[in-house]
Design goal:
The structure is a homotrimer of 464-residue chains. The first copy, chain A, has 464 residues and is α+β, with helices and mostly antiparallel strands. In chain A, 22% of the residues lie in helices and 25% in strands. Chain A is built from eleven helices and 22 strands. The N terminus of chain A is likely disordered.
């Protein structure tokens, strides 16, 4: 039976006429270079070169935890000696799932024949075999190194000889800061979740104009917006400049680190008080379970700087729950999803894997375009700085540029306010990026000095 | 690993012996020419040349309705100006589902970045972009024209230049008639549902002899049965002739219009009173959602002519519900399905797509055979009359032939009653089909005149 | 998009280093020769040469029972005349499922058009057709012969000319014995369920050391273990020799008959009293529904010999339930599964089809290895004795070797007790296998005589 190919417009043909859905039924493949993450895929192998969070420490109780990471079935456990193990899920003896295994004083024991595996894959015991059997020495169970940090379990799934040091970020340095871990599962590809962070325009519409009170009102104005690669070659920031009121403007930098980590600045209203270089409100990794399922793992930050009015609620933060995005998981009814859509709905409904070939991108998608380009350069190895061996050799605490700065800059009649916003945004971001690697207090002073200079220039310009 | 082919009987071989299931394990493919309906398939393209119902008007409330039609994912909505829109479901910007969109005063707005689409696919707003951006003019969102009629939303999904006028049927002309819309979802291919209407023998068994009281008792006798193509070349009728009692006979015509519309005559007992040419009790389209899911959309007719004792119940009619087939949906328990099977069970259980190659058809399947032949001729373009450009150019109210006629014809000893039934059935149907295009009153008179003539002939024959 | 092949260790390469899961991501195919059972597959055709249980008699009530056996969709029923029919599920007329059919005085009637099928596939009635229609004589509905025995319905699905007699086993001969039927569904391949019976080591760990009180404590010691093919060439036994206490030892034989039948010896503690050749506690067939679903059908035996303290509970035995493995079905919560794993969890979680290529087998898997080898020889027709035409020609009651023997053999200082266990085990098993075909009382006497001889030899050896 011959099947006619779908009718698709040819390149160079005219814009379809009204009611021309018939000519737009063509489909396209997703972007496999960026979206496929199984063993042996370019993006999958790139992601495996980084430590990835795979569960919360609190999920490791008396029984093993079945997890799926980068299309691999694994099991995580905390043994009696306090060692976290992450093993291939199926017993290397006869294939029984180790999620039914017995957590032991040392290692994890399969419940079927009692074989005992250590966190490094060593076979500690094969009790049905003769004590003198050399079987234990002939193979090793598949395992990955794990590292616990601030309530999250991180795993390195790449080639052993390429294992990078476990790195942390300077955003944790804020006085009195506490990191509270959470996770959120999404039945869709990782990339459409991750690139949402380099798309600040969606907040204007989804979270304020349409969503009502999902974010403070100042988010409801279209920002003066730009994007910049970071100097370390390993990511990008967005620069979002908004007027809060007639007296106050607000410059925000949010940072995406290749491949799948993002730092989000303050998520609560920071008020009208002038503040420089306040840091992250939350951070997260978008970790693929497989090509069409992903779990976000990260922390909410609790400190007086990013939450001056103590609006955060720790009790709402954990597995499948976060105070900032309460209710925004698969647990909503369809009616609520339709009447109050949030990030979960807009991301998951882009299809299991968003199809880039069907998009129509605008200037406001510049951040998404930049992020995809950086990822593509990375997996093609056109950018050595994007690989951990270039990034993580000299320091374990990375200097980052996520920040909010609130400034007193009154509106002035006859002056193009968006031009003013852009100028201050550039000034602040220049100072932030140029001071990367310096101590926080130094960077804050650099921002303040740069703002002062900008004010002087503005006053001079006024006089002219 | 070589796998032996299943053992199947060879053509010309003998009938299998008892207990020979082993030799009958061969499978066959479904009939793709008639059953596949996706974009570009022969039947799919043929169906797209007709307006098809896709939902009830009452389903268009304040939120969009996600629908799937002919293997395409769509969304339907009613905007503030009263326009019904049917759009491709995924936003042409970044792919988010428009089922989470905001129904606006004009058009449907995506909740992610606020782009606003009109019913004809025009992009009305791209609010994140500069007001002067030409982006809106460079493309159009996939859309189809919609038309509301008697509580159903119809959509045309074919090539725009081939769009036929929206046609209606003369069955709505009965005095005081009211059409009450309904829909019923079935997890199976469309054809096995549709062809059930040209198989009146199933009513004898499924609905009466086995099903008990699903239909009035007169249905429980095997009718004298024949089938005839209609003169317009666009469908067929069945001619079912039954004796109601010793004094009364009953001639029924039910009509199938290519490709997927059917008109069903009275569904309640019309009594023993002599009545000519009473019209439809219900009408419906069997609309494919995809190859293995279909939804029936149609109306129940309410008027004194087809429901003289007011047995119908409007309150039972709507989405997934119909008074005539109350409970005959997926909502029954398996026990009820087994003990009281109805159309839903016999149709859905023919497999997701019935496999014609495994059937053993009898003479009573003549209507099914004729319908499949007409459909095959149509998709092969061997019958131009089956295509809407030949059928819908001159009129928007089509003359149809669905009807019941009840006649006083006493049984007479020594006379072959089935011969009598066949003779009257032919007489009535001749008059009905020959008068197509005439006003209803004229046609009724033609039937009456023809019956009178038949009575005279019979009396004369008796004398001879 | 080129995808790198998964990294797998090459033959001859070294054992992976610690934390080398990255190098162990290779996958392998399941063993299709032994695991695939659809029509035309080697194992599927082999299994079809044997009568297989497909449901419990008690499941045949007033409505048909839809069953799936060896990847074929069937329906079973008990008609008014007491005949059990097993038919291809879809009506040979138009494909409607006969699970909605009407069980008749003779045969099963399709509810759609009333066609009536007899148990042998004859078409008894096609009521919509003319009474003189030859249609009924032109074909036959697919059917298989059925046989009811001790509460189970057995079906023969192989070539009709190869149908073997229905055979029974001598294990039913115990005085006062009652067989109580049960079934248990498993969502996995048949082989991993079946081979569990030739793996007595799993009982030590899963059922005692890990599972706690799933079996009497004596099971918790590693037995002196060996395996032997039976002389009829059609299966194997395991020989498990354990010390019960300082005074008593216990020799157990469990028997697997090719392809999928197993006889399990006593499942309750038989006490310290000396007993010879006590027979089966349960028997079962692991019947594939399809490649990834299987149902176990069998009986629990109730008699004073295997259950001296009357620990069994008939009320717990039936569809999806068995007293010996109460709760060990899919009905447990995930938490219970994790905390109290049993056979169901370890077998089902070996993947839908266990992948032999990923296993690391030890000496304790010798029984599994032997069983797979026997099955492979059978399907390759290298062992004619494994086929029913060689096995079932002369008798309908097969002599089998499943048994327990409890012996008073005190531990003696300075003597290697495992050597003693092995010696008595060999003696008992020799007597059991050598006496196959003899009456039970004769065989018991042979065992006793052989044990006496062994005791004499032991005493003599002591003196030396």
């Amino acid at each position: 039976m011959p099947v006619m190919p779908p009718v698709v417009p040819q390149p160079g043909t005219e814009r379809p006429k009204p009611y021309s859905g018939y000519f737009q039924r063509g489909t396209s493949v997703a972007d496999p270079e960026l979206t496929q993450i199984g063993p042996g895929t370019p993006m999958g192998e790139y992601m495996r070169r980084f430590w990835q969070p795979v569960c919360l420490s609190g999920q490791l109780t008396g029984v093993p935890l079945a997890i799926r990471v980068l299309s691999e079935d694994l099991v995580a456990y905390l043994d009696g000696a306090g060692t976290v193990g992450v093993l291939h899920r199926h017993c290397s003896h006869r294939g029984t799932s180790l999620e039914y295994g017995i957590v032991s004083e040392r290692g994890l024991r399969c419940c079927y024949h009692g074989w005992l595996f250590d966190a490094d894959g060593s076979i500690l015991e094969t009790p049905g075999e003769s004590p003198s059997s050399p079987l234990k020495e002939t193979f090793r169970h598949g395992s990955y190194p794990a590292h616990e940090y601030e309530g999250l379990i991180f795993v390195y799934m790449g080639p052993p000889e390429e294992r990078p040091p476990f790195v942390t970020y300077d955003t944790a340095e804020v006085a009195g800061n506490a990191l509270v871990p959470f996770s959120l599962a999404h039945p869709c590809n990782w990339l459409q979740i991750h690139e949402n962070h380099m798309d600040p325009v969606h907040s204007v519409f989804l979270h304020v104009q349409i969503g009502g009170d999902q974010l403070p009102r100042a988010w409801g104005e279209l920002p003066v917006l730009s994007f910049r690669e970071t100097d370390d070659g390993a990511g990008m920031v967005y620069i979002s400049n908004r007027r809060k009121d007639d007296e106050t403007i607000w410059v925000r930098n949010q940072q995406a680190h290749l491949p799948n980590f993002v730092q989000i600045a303050g998520i609560f209203d920071l008020g009208r008080q002038e503040r420089y270089f306040t840091r992250a409100g939350m951070e997260w990794w978008t970790v693929p379970n497989d090509d069409t399922h992903s779990t976000v793992f990260g922390w909410r930050h609790f400190n007086d700087e990013v939450d001056p009015r103590h609006e955060g609620c720790r009790d709402l933060i954990g597995v499948e729950s976060c105070d900032h995005i309460a209710g925004r998981t698969h647990t909503n009814t369809y009616e609520t999803q339709q009447r109050e859509p949030g990030d979960w709905e807009v991301l998951v409904s882009q299809r299991p894997i968003a199809i880039h070939g069907l998009e129509h991108l605008g200037t406001t998608d510049a951040g998404v375009v930049m992020l995809r380009r950086l990822l593509r350069q990375a997996v093609r190895k056109e950018n050595p700085s994007a690989w951990p061996d270039r990034r993580f050799t000299k320091t374990t605490r990375l200097s980052t540029s996520v920040q909010d700065t609130t400034l007193s800059v009154p509106m002035r009649p006859g002056v193009d306010d968006r031009e003013v916003l852009g100028r201050y945004g550039t000034a602040v971001t220049d100072a932030v990026l140029d001071s990367a690697g310096q101590p926080t207090s130094e960077r804050r002073a650099r921002v303040e000095a740069r703002v002062l200079l900008e004010r002087q220039n503005s006053t001079r310009a006024d006089r002219v």
